[in-house]
Amino acid sequence: MLKLYGDRSSNDCYKVRLLFSLLKKNYDWIPLEGETKAPLNVYQQYPKVPLPILEEDGGLIVEANAILYAVAQESRYLPESALGRARCLQWLFFERGQLQPAFEHGVRQKADPAAGKALRQALGSLEYQFAQTRFAVGNQVSVADIALFVSVFKAADAGIDIKDFPQICLWLEDIQALNGYKTKESFH
User: Fold this and answer.
1) CA–CA separation, 114 and 112 (whole Å)
2) Which residue, 53, 74, 77, 62, is CA-closest to 143?
């Protein structure tokens, strides 16, 4: 049985839990909030462990986007072609390296209009992509969309009016309409 260690409030944990829900995949959720601790083998392998952590057959995977990519193997959420998989990875790296840091900076500096510039640029890249294709990697939803969705969905927290990005708005609706979609708050 898959074990997912995480924090209920974490957006990275939400990404993985959302994919599990979309795939209707069973797993044991092990909260690491408060006094709950991961098993010793987790901390021995990853002393400064980022959440979430996926444990399968004694092996561990850390980093949300790596978990997404691993769990999506042989599912409709990972393109079949090498080019499609490479583009999927490209968007996963974009989400982690550009979109997420810009979002976090925007939240911290919400009162400073210049702070939203990087986030607006990152959202502009997505807006351009979604004007070309329905999803990040063509016309089929992928784990890249799941990762991007979690970062984009909370843009208002950084002072960004997502209505300024109509293609992104349509894409957000498409993600929320997926069979198995759940809000972050609906996970217990």
Assistant:
1) 5
2) 77
Amino acid at 27: Y
Distance, CA of 111 to CA of 82 (rounded, Å): 43
Residue 90 lies in a domain: yes
Cα separation, 56 vs 186, in Å, equals 25
Residues 50 and 123 in one domain: no
Q: At which residue do the structure tokens 């839990």 appear?
A: 17
The first and second tokens of residue 92, run together, are 């996963």
Q: Of 62, 49, 54, nearest to 27 (Cα)?
A: 54
> Quick check: 115 pLDDT over 70?
no
How far is residue 69 from each of residues 8, 49, 62, 119, measured CA to CA in Å? 21, 19, 11, 24
Given pLDDT bands bounded at 50, 70 and 90, which one contains residue 86? very high
Q: Domain range holding 164?
A: 82-176
CATH of the domain at 18: 3.40.30.10
Under 8 Å between Cβ of 146 and 68: yes
Q: What pTM did the predictor assign?
A: 0.90
CB 123 within 8 A of CB 161: no
